[in-house]
Each structure stands twice: as C-alpha cells, then as structure tokens.
Amino acid sequence: MNLLFVTLGSFIIILAVTALVRGLRLGEVRLENRSQACAWAERNIPFFNAQEAIISEDGQSALVIDSEEQIVVIKRHGSKFAGRLLNKPIDAHQEGPIWCIGSGDRQFGRVRMQCDVKGQHRLLALL
Amino acid sequence: MDISLPSPTQVAVPLFIIAILVEIWIARTKARDSYDPQDTFTSLMLGLGSTVAGGLVGGFYLAIAFIAYDFRVFDAGPQWWAVWWAWPLAFVLDDLAYYWKHRLGHRMRWMWAAHVIHHSSQHYNLSTALRQTWTGFLTPGFIISLPMFLLGFHPLMVAFCGGLNLVYQFWIHTETIDKMPRWFEWALNTPSHHRVHHATNPRYLDSNYAGVFMFWDRMFGTFTPETDGEEIRYGIVRQLGSFNVIWAAFHEWVGLASDIARAPSWKARANYLIKPPGWTHDNSRDTSDSLKARWLTENTHDKRTEPVTPASTITPAE
Ligand SMILES: [Zn+2]
Ligand SMILES: [Zn+2]
Q: What would the DSSP string read from start to end of A57-109?
C-alpha cells in the first residue's frame, strides 16, 4: 500500500517536471540546412563520408547520402538527432505531401519528411 | 542492540528533484537544448521503475549477503556498527567493487544488458543520473561484492555505503559544471570525468568507470581526461531513437536473447554472454575496441577527420 502511494506520488511529480520542461519550451531544435545534416551524419555514423542531403522543410528530419551511396535517415530525437543506415531498396511511401521513410527498426519508427520539389525529385531518384 | 540505517537514496530523492529543477531553470537561459520534455519524462520514469524493481528484489539479495556474512573471516561482534574505522574502509572497498562491477557492465554483454539503461539517453543532465538499472538482479554482478561479506563487513553497512556512493554520483551528471579544482579532479569523480564515461566519441569509449574515487581508473589504466574543444556525443553507439520506457529498460536483453537464439554453437552462445557488446560469431558488428582501433588509424594517417588538437593548445609559430 505504502509502495503504491509513493509510486503514485512520484508519478505526479514526474508529470509536473515534464510539464515544466515543456512549458519552458526547452529542447526545441531543427536542422537549418543541408550541411548541418551532412555534418551530423559524419560525426555520428562511423566512417560515413557525406556527399549530399535532403532535409525536411520543418528541419526535423533528413536523408544523407555518402560517397559509397549509403543512405542514412535522421530524425530529431529530443533536442538531439538520431539516425539509421538504410537498407536498399528504400522503404518509402507518400501520404499527401509527406514522405514516410521506414528505418528498418520498429522502435526507431518511420521518419516523416516534407520536401520541396527539388528534394522530392532527388528522393524519387533514390528509390 | 541493533541499528536501523536509512536508505541514502530515498532520503536524497527530494534533493534530486530540487537540483533538477534548479538545473532546468539554469538551462532556460544558458543551454536550452540540455533538457527535452520527452527525454526528461523517460529518465524520471526509468528512475521510478528502478526504485520499484529494487524494492521487489532487494530483499532477496540482502538475504544472499547475509548467508555469505555467516561465513565471515573477521567478526566485529553484535555491535559491528560501533567499529568506526570499518565505515570508511567499507566505503572504499565498496567503491572498488563498484569499479569492477561497472567495468564488467561495459565489457561483458550480459552485464551490459542491465547497465545500458543508464546510457540510453543522448542528453546529459541531472535527470539522466536517475536512469538506473531495472534488471541488475539478472546478472552475476553481485558476486563481486561477496568477498566483502566474507571478510566480515555487515550487509547493512555495505548497502548503506553503496547507497551513499549512488547519491554521490547524482551531481556529476551535468554540463553546467565545467571543471572542479585540480586536487578534486585528481582524487574524485567529477562531471568532467563522467561526461567522458557517457561519451560515444571513439577516443572516450570504455573510460572512467569510477563511482566516487578516480584513482581506480588511474590505477587500472582506464582513465581518459576530457579534451577541451571536442564536442561530446552522449548515449550509445547505436542510439535507440525511442523514448519508450520499457524498450529503454529491456532492449539489450531482447537483442542478447535473439543473438543467443540464432547462435550456431554453444560456444558462440556463451561468448554472446561474456564477450563485450558488439561481439558476434561472424564478426558482423563493431565493438568499442574495433571502433577505437579504426579511429586511431584514421587519426594517425588521415588528418581530415575530427580535430584532435584543441585550439587552446596550438602554439603560434614564431
Ligand atoms: Zn556506465
Ligand atoms: Zn552516469
């Protein structure tokens, strides 16, 4: 009973602290340009030499392609970014203006991208 | 007469919450990306889950400790707690045991499955400290503490010291403190040393396992200082990319089980348990050793990769 009470109390405190972080709008980040996406991939994917990137217009996700035609999908994860190297053929489908890219990892999830016309063309060429 | 000792971690919880609130308040103006609502929620939930798991299985491990204690070599008598010098000695020895437990926690996949939860965040703030294991009881880690009970340290004394050790480790999970005074950095674990421990940058992998005293790492060759000017990437080499609390707590157990299930031989199965994370029977993944080795060769032969010389140490040509 005591354990249940303490657990419930803790849960309420957890919700309050989370609400504070959200209320202060901490952790809101975005990829500003393609070179940021490339730099991220090079730093985070071992031995990846980024050549070009397609970034989502909301700055929340990107695809980066390297010199050996490897493709990494990046998504915002908290105030950081996380990525997955993709297997070919790329698992992608369109929902209206949004592209959904399968990461190949169920827990990582599908990554949503909204691209300009040029980005869309490049993406189609990758498929 | 016996003694009742408080649980240091439980007593410290209000302080943890206050410190987190203070850090959030500082982050608001100084480092708005150091906290994220989803990450904070997951960290705190993992802390809560760990407390619940500890409450459920802690008694069982205390019972094992008491069995070992029954075979003690030295006996301090019923008033064991009155032997004042045994307290600091127990604290230091428990810290040594912690060092080895923690080192195995990174170098043995079976132990890593339980410890990875602590490294599952890409963020590094005081709330990250609360990502504590849920499944430590499923590993052989407790064996490392058994010699202390056999020597004659009372299980409650060791548990108390272990609690203090964990409380100490809370404040070092922060980027708001740069460096402590030199003597402090030399002797004790600090935010700077522990940032290195949480880093995935190849140069930092498998470093700084200390709980409280830094000299264990210096003594056993695992100490790496923080290099000025190198941005740290926190977390694990293959980032989870998920805030799912249950997945953070159990993902490596799932990975370990599926590797064992698909292993071609009993030898490979055993190796999946005892070899470092990333080991595979067909060499298909990177280990921290292979990543480090590749990084070292690239950095000695190829100057295009990450800058290794901090700007502050470059001496201008005369
Ligand atoms: Zn660790
Ligand atoms: Zn830590």
A: TTSSEEEEEETTS-EEEEEEETTEEEEEEPPSSP-EEEETTEEEEE-S-TTT-
Domain ranges of chain A: 1-29, 34-126
Cα–Cα distance, B185 to B224 (Å, whole number) = 12
Q: Give a yes or no: residue B317 inside a domain.
A: no
Cβ separation of B40 and A28 shorter than 8 Å? Answer: no
Pairing state between β A80-85 and A71-77: antiparallel
A22 touching B (Cβ < 8 Å): yes
Look at B7 and B35; give whichever has higher pLDDT.
Answer: B35
Judge whether B286 lies within some domain: no
Distance, CA B256 to ligand 2 centroid (Å)?
22
**φ, ψ at A64 (rounded to 5°):** -125, 135
Pairing of strands A71-77, A61-66: antiparallel
Q: Which of B40, B43, B121 would best serve as a mutation to test chain A binding (most A beta carbons within 10 A)? A: B40
Please say whether the beta carbons of B44 and B127 come within 8 A: yes
Question: Does the structure show a pLDDT above 80 at B87?
Answer: yes
Angle at B84 between CA B79 and CA B85, to 5 degrees: 125
Q: Is A5 on the interface with B (CB under 8 A)?
A: no
ipTM of the complex: 0.93
How many domains, in total, are found in chain B? 1
- Tell me, what's the pLDDT at B314? 31
Domain-located, residue B310: no
Range of the domain at B54: 8-220
Please give the full DSSP string across B291-317, using - where no structure is assigned.
HHHHHHHHHHH-TTSS--S-GGGPPPP
Residue B295 included in any domain:
no
